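[Discussion] Sanity-checking designs against the backbone

I'm trying to build intuition for which residues belong where. Below is a structure token string of 285 positions. I'd appreciate it if someone posts a full sequence so I can compare it with mine line by line.
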């Protein structure tokens, strides 16, 4: 099964705060895998994912207190090193970056392909004027954006701006901006997320830390939603990748739903084709 993983974390493990280090090592990995190496080294991360069927991976920046502000857009761009296997998504934190717009411009020069925002973990209002300007820039540049939705596990998180419905004004103001609700509002706001993804063409959900049985329930609730769901592992928080895939294989998802969720939907959203990937990799060989 071909996979585009829309939700992968990477950086430098020693620079993380202690509770985040604990979060990343909480669930076991395969016996021959060192999670710290997978998180910190692009060669190890790529090899680990490729052997399990991953064709592309969206790698997320997170410049906030939990990472000691170490995983910024520049670090992720350097981590990905223009390798077409990786798709670098940056991060803008208005509590840390003096000018969100200038930070967006820097990311554009670095080759950032999209953004993930963490209002709860970084304790900011996503509707301040400078962030509205950033969303408009992302729409015009064709950059997808992601928001953490649902409860967050960081110890100092504000737990504000975590409900999908709070983002309604954003998706309505920018109808051509592709907005991904990471975690699908887990665990309390699945219904809000599903209703918005059904109502708005530009809204998608990812499956990061969502049990496969719940993804099955999403499709039972709204059958067409299978075309709006993106597989995201939340590696390395997810624990061993092979066990996660086994859970999906054992689920009631149809073959058509698996193909859409694991590859087709993300391929369309990111305009990715497998032959394009193969040609780019061949050029680098």
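Best answer:
Here's mine. Compare freely.
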């Amino acid at each position: 099964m071909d996979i585009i993983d829309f939700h992968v974390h990477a950086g430098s493990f020693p620079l993380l705060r202690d509770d985040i280090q604990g979060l990343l090592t909480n669930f076991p990995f395969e016996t021959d895998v060192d999670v710290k190496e997978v998180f910190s080294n692009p060669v190890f991360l790529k090899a680990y994912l490729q052997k399990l069927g991953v064709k592309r991976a969206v790698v997320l920046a997170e410049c906030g207190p939990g990472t000691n502000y170490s995983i910024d857009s520049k670090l992720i761009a350097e981590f990905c090193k223009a390798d077409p296997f990786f798709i670098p998504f940056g991060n803008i934190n208005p509590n840390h970056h003096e000018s969100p717009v200038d930070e967006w411009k820097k990311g554009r020069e670095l080759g950032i392909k999209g953004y993930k925002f963490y209002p709860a973990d970084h304790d900011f209002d996503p509707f301040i004027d400078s962030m509205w300007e950033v969303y408009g820039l992302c729409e015009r540049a064709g950059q997808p954006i992601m928001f953490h939705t649902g409860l967050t596990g960081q110890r100092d998180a504000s737990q504000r701006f975590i409900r999908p419905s709070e983002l309604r004004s954003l998706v309505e103001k920018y109808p051509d901006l592709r907005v991904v609700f990471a975690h699908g509002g887990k665990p309390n706001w699945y219904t809000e997320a599903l209703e918005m993804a059904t109502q708005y063409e530009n809204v998608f959900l990812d499956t990061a830390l969502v049990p496969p049985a719940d993804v099955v329930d999403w499709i039972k609730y709204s059958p067409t939603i299978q075309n709006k769901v993106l597989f995201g592992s939340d590696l390395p928080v997810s624990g061993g990748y092979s066990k996660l895939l086994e859970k999906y294989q054992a689920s009631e998802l149809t073959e058509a739903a698996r193909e859409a969720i694991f590859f087709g939907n993300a391929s369309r959203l990111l305009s990715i084709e497998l032959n394009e990937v193969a040609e780019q990799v061949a050029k680098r060989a």
